[in-house]
Amino acid sequence: MPSPAVPWESHGFFNKHPWQTLTLLAADRFLVEQDLLKGEPTLAAPSKW
């Protein structure tokens, strides 16, 4: 799973809102594509994304 390039953020940016939710959604989509999970994500994307 490729990690996003966000040059204006510091290391570990994905552990904070809204990146944490976006990272979890991306991981969820990846695992569904690999047939390791089934169904739709239970988290909603942040409203500005």
Write the SSE topology.
Layout: H1 19-33
What structural keywords apply?
mainly alpha, 49 residues, single chain
**What is the chains' assembly state?**
single chain
SS class: mainly alpha
Described by the principal axes of the CA atoms, the overall outline is globular
Low-confidence stretches: none
Q: Please tally the β strands and state the result.
A: 0
Radius of gyration of CA atoms, rounded to a whole number = 12 Å
Number of helices: 1
Q: Could you tell me the mean pLDDT?
A: 81
Helix content: 25-40%
**How is the biggest beta sheet arranged?**
none
Note the beta-strand portion.
under 5%
Distance between the termini: 20 Å
Spell the H/E element sequence: H
Account of the 3D structure:
By secondary structure, the protein is mainly α. 31% of the residues lie in helices and 0% in strands. The protein is built from 1 helix and no strands. It has one helix at residues 19-33. The chain starts with 18 loop residues before the first helix and ends in a 16-residue tail after the last helix.
